[in-house]
Design goal:
Blueprint: E1 6-7, E2 9-11, E3 15-17, H1 20-23, E4 27-31, H2 38-48, E5 53-56, H3 68-76, H4 81-95, H5 103-119, E6 124-127, H6 135-146, E7 153-157, E8 174-177, H7 183-189, H8 197-207, H9 211-222, H10 241-251, H11 256-267, H12 273-280, H13 284-293, E9 297-298, E10 307-308, H14 311-319, H15 323-336, H16 340-350, H17 356-371, H18 375-388, H19 394-411, H20 414-425, H21 431-444, H22 453-463, H23 467-483, H24 488-505, H25 508-525, H26 530-539, H27 552-562, H28 566-583, H29 586-602, H30 606-623, H31 627-641, H32 644-661, H33 664-680, H34 684-700, H35 712-721, H36 725-742, H37 748-761, H38 765-778, H39 783-799, H40 803-819, H41 823-838, H42 843-848, H43 851-861, H44 866-873, H45 877-891, H46 896-902, H47 907-911
Parallel strand pairs: 1-8, 4-7, 4-8, 5-6, 6-7
Antiparallel strand pairs: 2-3, 9-10
Helix pairs in contact: 3-4, 4-5, 5-6, 8-9, 9-10, 11-13, 11-14, 15-16, 16-17, 17-18, 18-19, 18-20, 19-20, 19-21, 20-21, 21-22, 21-23, 22-23, 23-24, 23-25, 24-25, 25-26, 26-27, 27-28, 27-29, 28-29, 29-30, 29-31, 30-31, 31-32, 31-33, 32-33, 33-34, 34-35, 35-36, 35-37, 36-37, 37-38, 37-39, 38-39, ...
Length: 912
């Protein structure tokens, strides 16, 4: 068997989609853990071969019964004489005293099985649960299949280890791994359960993308009704019964010794090869290889750390332990661990819960974890410290619980935040403490504000009569109004009221946050006082910690980005990033990384932009923050710097999530990214639909400033590409007026670029070329935008039959995109240059079209009307329309604008 496994691209919507080279293989081993969809994958592969399926499905109890598999084969084909003869031969072997491995009977069974396989009608043999095929049957089948090489065989089994001896179904059998479902695939699979995005993300992590396990978790979750915070019990650490059965079956694919080692790994928060080797000795590596082959763990992590492929595996391993045994194993880990914080963690868990010393140890360990940036560990330890603090020490318990809530909020860990909050809300605490807890929970929810609206009512009730506390709640309500309700005017009013209350009470930190929020929405609304409000916030001292993505410094950096000052934005954001990473505020870190990625991209530093975007996406995916913001940035950066196909995946995921969360701000942004990518990859009709939805959302939210989200130029270009020239003209004129009115002159170059495309579509190539040349000169500080303009200039010069100028512009675009690492754009520009240098007579299009179609296309590309084409060619207008329809279909085009880019305009038409 080949040593390299091929991963299957699995789609839950249409069944497994197997690789083309797997479809052509005659012998395939499909492998994956229980519940992964092996049976479905094997069936799909068999159906692709176009033959009836002959299925065998041995069970676990058959594995130790000699020749049970051969008997099932014989009984599956009762109409064939050879099958009846094989069944009789099996009866003779089993009735005969002595070993069934005697040479005579064994050879006879091999001959009978070979005869049967040769006589069977054309079928594909599918053996499900092949790991339970008894050894005697496997030996005979393997021998017979060598003599029947034309018989397709598909075996589905739990595991396959590279480097093992040949499989019974053939030495050259191809191994096909059934991979887990991706997050978007799982979201579609679970859509009937109407779960929120956070819950889908949680199930994806818990199941590792195993579809059967995910369904078991979703079914249990759908039966759990939501309760108010004060009445929600702590999360049950045990899995629902169907999930436990499946995970148990999965764990049973490895030995008991391996399960014991994995249990120790599950009790550690970051197990690595060194720790596990210290625990299990030299055998650890072989045991972990067995676990990895079974799909239970993944060792492809930094620093040789082990990751369970599904967190439900570690949950089940821990949950099945009795409490006293769990404490003993933690004590063993405390003795073995080389890390002081983790030693203290295990010591605390090994101690009886009633021992107050364990609370102090956990608290000190949480502080050290926090200082060295291990914020997930800090959140666990601070909650443990609060839970272990004696209830009669009310003040210390409340202090530790508040710390635990803040740690959870920083890491976006809402379940731990809620558990810590219950310790405060269930006791006799002050209004300030209770509001602090509720606001921390709101902040922990991040972009998932759709799930915390009840918290606002509780927080306002607790803050009654305290203007400083009320102001803090109003700021969060302003964020809600802007993000979820799409009401920036309402958000502006709430933020203004919060600023007034905070200022009156002398709360400078809250005043800064309120003014920053007010300035944010004033900019969106195009309010002339936006910068004045921001300056007021910047002038105030920072007297208390403020979330870094809510500081006026962060907003000032965003405004610099809106105003095409990327280097200024970068300078402001870098120190904020260092502070956010030091304090462990995951949401702020993601927002700042996103800003840095967009600044570097705008400045043409694409490699740096990719690094920041990847870090933001990775942190988002490991902290259960909403993926919508990071997906938006990833889509923009990936589409410009690396791969448009990956960028489209990010944009669609972000739009789907934002729509589910009712997050209008990031729905607009991800739809804009989607529309932009569809436009630049030659899919204008789809781009138009996405960008028109962006326009509608922006109007609904009354967004007035065109510099905040620059969708206008792309929508106008989509209109031009689709031939809707009047709509393009109206949009460009209106946006130019608004930009000038708001003083947003940085928006004008992109509008002028599309105005040039509109000029060219109307046949005025000279005006278009002059305008594009001017725009390119104005964009020297924005290399990618300048390159995009030069590429448009090349297309325009080509349409105007100025091939030398077109080549020069395309060559400049290639050099610019290549120098700045904008690879998809560099490929597009290189393709345009190649066409100009090697295809002067449109040979590609000409070879597809008849002579009449080519002549008609050339006239249409020059801007000639259908009636004038009909007159020139002495045919009817209907004939012209039908001919152009065929041309569009053959060339894969949608409009005359695209036609003009693909076919050189007719000289006759230009001279007329």
């Amino acid at each position: 068997m080949r040593d390299s496994a091929i991963r299957v691209d699995t789609s839950h919507e249409t069944g497994p989609v197997l690789p083309e080279d797997a479809h052509g293989a005659r012998r395939v081993v499909v492998f994956g853990p229980p519940g992964s969809g092996k049976t479905t994958a094997a069936g799909a592969l068999g159906r692709r071969l176009g033959l009836p399926l002959l299925r065998l499905a041995p069970h676990a109890q058959d594995a130790h019964v000699p020749y049970a598999g051969l008997l099932e084969l014989a009984l599956a084909l009762p109409a064939l004489p050879a099958a009846r003869e094989l069944a009789a031969g099996l009866d003779a072997v089993t009735d005969r005293p002595g070993s069934p491995d005697d040479a005579g009977p064994a050879l006879r069974l091999r001959r009978l099985t070979t005869t049967l396989l040769r006589e069977v009608p054309p079928v594909t043999l599918v053996v499900d649960n092949a790991q339970w095929l008894d050894a005697a049957s496997a030996a005979v089948l393997g021998w017979a299949l060598r003599l029947t090489p034309d018989l397709p065989v598909i075996a589905a089994q739990h595991t396959w280890r590279p480097g093992t001896a040949g499989h019974w179904c053939g030495e050259d059998a191809r191994a096909v791994r059934v991979p887990p479902l991706t997050a978007p695939q799982l979201a579609t699979l679970l859509s009937p359960y109407r779960l929120g995005p956070r819950e889908v993300t949680r199930i994806h992590t818990h199941s590792g993308g195993n579809p059967t396990l995910a369904l078991a978790l979703a079914q249990a979750r759908s039966h759990t009704s939501a309760a108010p915070l004060h009445h929600v019990a702590e999360d049950d650490p045990a899995l629902p019964r169907p999930a436990r059965r499946l995970v148990g079956e999965w764990l049973a694919t490895v030995s008991g010794e391996v399960q014991e080692l994995l249990t120790l790994a599950a009790l550690d928060d970051r197990p690595d090869l060194g720790l596990l080797s210290d625990l299990a000795g030299p055998a650890a590596e072989a045991m972990l290889a067995e676990a990895e082959a079974a799909g239970l763990v993944d060792f492809g992590q930094p620093a040789h750390t082990l990751r369970f492929t599904a967190s439900a595996i570690s949950t089940e391993l821990v949950a099945r332990l009795p409490a006293h045994e769990r404490r003993l194993l933690h004590a063993r880990l405390a003795e073995t661990s080389r890390d002081s914080v983790r030693r203290d963690r295990h010591t605390a868990w090994a101690t009886d819960a009633a021992d107050p010393r364990s609370a102090g140890r956990a608290d000190r360990a949480a502080t050290r974890a926090r200082l060295r940036g291990e914020h997930a560990l800090a959140a666990e330890l601070s909650l443990l410290a609060a839970q272990r603090t004696p209830h009669d020490d009310s003040e210390l318990l409340t202090e530790r619980a508040l710390t635990a809530v803040r740690d959870a909020a920083h890491y976006g860990d809402l379940p731990r935040g809620r558990a810590a909050a219950r310790l405060v809300l269930g006791r006799d605490t002050t209004p300030a403490q209770r509001v602090d807890v509720l606001i921390s929970l709101i902040d922990a929810s991040g972009q998932h504000l759709h799930s915390v609206d009840e918290l606002f009512a509780d927080a306002l009730h607790e803050a009654a009569g305290r203007s400083d506390l009320t102001a803090r709640v109003l700021i969060r309500q302003a964020i809600w109004a802007n993000v979820n309700e799409g009401d920036p005017q309402g958000a502006c009013a709430l933020a203004g009221r919060a600023a007034t209350l905070a200022e009156a009470s002398g709360d400078t930190a809250t005043t800064v946050m309120a003014l920053t929020m007010q300035a944010r929405v004033q900019r969106v609304l195009g309010h002339p006082d936006a910068e004045t409000t921001l300056d007021r916030a910047l002038a105030l001292p920072r007297t208390a910690p403020v979330p870094l993505n809510a500081t006026p410094q962060h907003l000032a950096a965003r405004h610099a980005l809106f105003d095409d000052r990327p280097d200024e934005a970068r300078t402001a954001l870098l120190p904020l990033l260092a502070e956010a990473e030091r304090t462990g505020d995951a949401e702020a870190t993601v927002d700042i990384l996103r800003g840095l990625a967009e600044a570097e991209l705008r400045a043409g530093r694409c490699a740096r932009a990719l690094d920041h975007a990847h870090r933001a996406q990775a942190l988002t995916d490991t902290t259960a923050l909403s993926p919508a913001p990071a997906c938006y940035t990833s889509a923009l950066v990936e589409g410009t710097a690396r791969r448009t196909d990956l960028a489209l995946v990010h944009a669609r995921r972000g739009a789907d999530t934002a729509r589910q969360e009712d997050n209008k701000v990031f729905l607009s942004r991800n739809l804009f990214a989607l529309g932009h990518l569809l436009l630049v990859t030659g899919r204008p009709r789809e781009a138009l639909a996405a960008l028109e939805e962006v326009r509608d959302l922006e109007r609904l939210q009354r967004v007035h400033d065109p510099s905040v989200l620059r969708w206008h130029a792309d929508l106008a270009e989509a209109f031009v590409t689709m031939g809707h020239l009047e709509q393009a003209h109206e949009l460009l004129t209106g946006t130019r007026h608004t930009a000038t009115e708001c003083g947003r002159h940085t928006v004008l170059p992109s509008l002028d670029r599309v105005q040039a495309l509109l000029d060219a579509a109307r046949g005025d190539y000279d005006a278009a070329a002059r305008r594009l040349t001017d725009v390119a000169d104005r964009l020297r500080h924005l290399p990618v935008e300048r390159g995009r303009t030069l590429l448009a200039l090349s297309h325009t010069q080509r349409r105007g039959r100025r091939r030398a100028s077109a080549r020069a512009a395309a060559r400049s675009a290639v050099d610019l995109f290549t120098a700045h690492g904008a690879h998809p754009w560099a490929e597009a520009a290189t393709h345009a240059l190649h066409r100009l240098e090697h295809s002067p007579s449109d040979n590609g299009a000409r070879s597809l079209l008849t002579q009449a179609e080519q002549r008609c296309a050339e006239l249409a590309a020059a801007g000639t009307s259908n009636r004038d084409i009909a007159t020139t060619l002495t045919v009817s207008v209907k004939t012209v329309e039908a001919t152009l329809t065929r041309v569009y279909r053959k060339l894969g085009l949608h409009s005359r604008f695209q036609l003009a880019r693909s076919v050189t305009p007719s000289r006759d038409a230009e001279g007329s």
